[in-house]
Amino acid sequence: MSAPSQQAVLDFLAAPSTHGGAPVTRVDTHAASVFLAGARAIKIKRAVRFPFLDFTTLDKRKAACEAELAVNRPYAPALYKRLLAVTREADGALALGGQGDPVEWAVEMARFDETATLDRLAARDAIGDAVADALGRAVAAAHARAAPVEGFGFADVLAAIVSQNDAELRETPTLFPPDDVTALTQATRGALDRVRPLLDTRERDGLVRRCHGDLHLGNIALIDNAPVLFDAIEFDDRFATADLLYDLAFLLMDLIECGRAGAATVVLNRYLTESGRESDLDALAALPLFLSVRAAIRAKVSTERQAQARDYFALARRLIAPPQPRLVAVGGLSGTGKSVLARALAAHVPPLPGAVVLRSDVERKRLCGVAETERLPPDAYGAETTARVYAAIADKARRVLAAGHSAIADAVYARAEERDAIRTAAGAAAFHGLFLAAGLDTRVGRIGARQADASDADANVARQQERYDLGRLDWTTVDAADTPGATLTLARAALGL
Q1: From residue 295, how far is each of 216, 266, 423 by CA, in Å?
Q2: Contact, 164 vs 276, CB < 8 A?
Q3: Cα dihedral sign for 409, 411, 417, 419?
Q4: How many CB atoms lie within 10 A of CB 113?
Q5: What is the rounded CA–CA span in Å between residue 9 and residue 15?
């Protein structure tokens, strides 16, 4: 079918009578038309050709529909139902799933609440920490299922994307000043040159995989309180094959751009915890590059919305030049609110999307091979295991800093030698030590209110800690007896944030 001949199908699918009288909402994208009616959505490919796809024949559109089902079912099996034909019946009338000859092909999907996509939630400031945490888990799980692609040459593909961005941004000099484009491209190529060996190593390690490829906020929905990824790229595996952190970077960048950097921080930290790959800490060296390239892509495809295009372009320039990292250590006895502060503080510690949080309670569970909220026996808190936990945190902090990213180390740090060791881990980077203080009754009350938390400390532990000799304490003491918000304000002031 040529583009004009699709009109009869479009009119047919837009008619309520086609859907049992249900009202119909039509949503068009550059390559598809979606008809929402009742409990289902019918999606057809538009008969269009772009440099990156060709849907100009019926066979190609059928193949694209089949590919969409195959690619997206692993992400959202409850959404993607079946391939459905629009047929021409013997009497000349069109039918949906009829007995006549197919004149168009469609993907039948289960309909969900269109106001529950993450771009809509972000606009309502409705992406809280719980949603962001679940989002990090969802992306990590999707990446764990993704198949590695050998011999892809991701670094070369990324270099080609950078060149394409440069050429296409220059097509709109009124939006993207040529000198600024030149500066961005030079900085981007320099960053790619620096991390190319890292990217090649990750590809050899199986971390270049067939991913979602289009992981922006509009392609994720909250369904039954769980994030569901949908509308993955189906028309060309090359566009969806990438380093896993490059796939994640699209989501992080989109959250940052819409003013939800705090959510991006939570997503990143949960993703790193769930992936369990320490090599991802080294790969943070490539994150500014990945974020910037993703923002530049969004800038060049948003030229019809000029203000948004300028915002994305400005973000691309900002992301490619991150500030120097720092190491913040948050210590204090159990119940002083260390972990609450560390999580809240992370979003305020540059570079974007915020600091990596290294929590002793989580690290101990990892070393012991148990789930984050599974309770450990007392012998897991012996001196030898505790020393391993603190050593692991210091080592990870060094790796994060070496990658140019900031870290927050969250542990009791009751002993002077533990505090000295984490300070040493900072190396040449700026170091800030915060030690939280709160009364015993406050600490016991907070511990008793915990639910599904990685900490195993109870009221008895809190009371025993009252006898600790902290020794010389040259960190900044922060009064943590008030609300978490008040503690965060004091901590930010102490750090000059």
Answers
A1: 11, 20, 35
A2: no
A3: positive
A4: 10
A5: 10
For residue 467, what is the enclosing H or E element? none
Tally Cβ neighbours within 10 Å of residue 277: 16
**Distance between terminal CA atoms of the chain?**
60
- The letter for the amino acid at 273 is T
| Kind plus residue range of the DSSP H or E element containing 223 | strand 220-223
Q: Which residues pair with 84 in a beta bridge?
A: 106
Is pTM beyond 0.90? Reply is yes
Closest CA to 93 of 154, 162, 9: 9
Can you say whether the dihedral through the CA atoms of 457, 370, 279, 160 is positive or negative? negative
C-alpha angle 444/134/203, rounded to 5°?
Answer: 120
**Contacts (Cβ under 8 Å, ≥6 apart) of 354:** 261, 262, 264, 265, 268, 346, 347, 348, 406
Domain spans, the chain: 4-111, 118-319, 326-495
Close Cβ partners of 241 (under 8 Å, ≥ 6 residues apart): 149, 152, 154, 157, 208, 209, 210, 211, 213
The CATH code that applies to domain 118-319 is: 3.90.1200.10
Return d(Cα 36, Cα 33) in angstroms, integer: 10
Q: How far is CA 263 from CA 80, 120, 167, 330, 372, in A?
A: 28, 15, 33, 21, 21
Residue type, 430: A
Q: Are the C-beta atoms of 87 and 102 separated by less than 8 Å?
A: yes
Question: What CATH number was assigned to the domain covering residues 326-495?
Answer: 3.40.50.300
- The pLDDT profile of the chain, 497 residues, written as one tens digit per residue, is 344 479 999 999 999 999 999 999 999 988 999 999 999 999 999 999 987 889 999 999 999 999 999 999 999 999 999 999 999 999 999 999 999 999 999 999 999 999 999 999 999 999 999 999 999 999 999 999 999 999 999 999 999 999 999 999 999 999 999 999 999 999 999 999 999 999 999 999 999 999 999 999 999 999 999 999 999 998 888 889 999 999 999 999 999 999 999 999 999 999 999 999 999 999 999 999 999 999 999 999 899 899 999 999 999 999 999 999 999 999 999 999 999 999 999 999 999 999 999 999 999 999 999 999 999 999 999 999 999 999 999 999 999 999 999 999 999 999 999 999 999 999 999 999 999 999 999 999 999 999 999 999 999 999 999 999 999 999 999 999 999 999 999 999 999 99
Q: What are the structure tokens assigned to 404, written together?
A: 């140019």
Q: Say which residue the tokens 């529909």 belong to.
A: 65
